[in-house]
Write a structure and sequence with these properties.
elongated
Length: 116
């Protein structure tokens, strides 16, 4: 038994594509910096869901949980930011996941360094 698409009974094999312009993996930030998150998510037959999350490695606390409405969009431009309030050296993880209507997915996981 296969998945059925929201739009048709045909199963798509190509998944979404995440292209992030900022930040970069392993990027260093100084305490007080703003972390800008910008990039594009595309899918040849339409996106279904998108999740953008930033969480602290040491505590697991989530400081950004962004789930914009992308249903049936061919592309979506991410343009958001977060300003961590930590005053000590910590590591953050940026996680982006995108799904299309056939549960094809793409994901991105970056580590970000927050230090004085």
């Amino acid at each position: 038994m296969g998945f059925s698409s929201c739009n048709s009974d045909d199963i798509e094999v190509l998944g979404p594509v995440i292209t992030l312009t900022t930040p970069t993996d392993q990027q260093d930030f100084a305490i007080g910096d703003t972390i800008f998150i910008q990039g594009d998510i595309t899918d040849n037959e339409g996106l279904h869901e998108l999740m953008v999350m930033v969480y602290q490695e040491e505590s697991g606390n989530t400081i950004l949980d962004y789930t914009p409405t992308v249903h049936d969009m061919a592309s979506f431009h991410i343009d958001t930011f977060v300003v961590p309030t930590d005053t000590v050296h910590v590591h953050y993880h940026l996680k982006i996941e995108a799904w299309d209507h056939d549960n094809n997915a793409d994901s991105l996981n970056y580590t970000l360094h927050w230090a004085d």
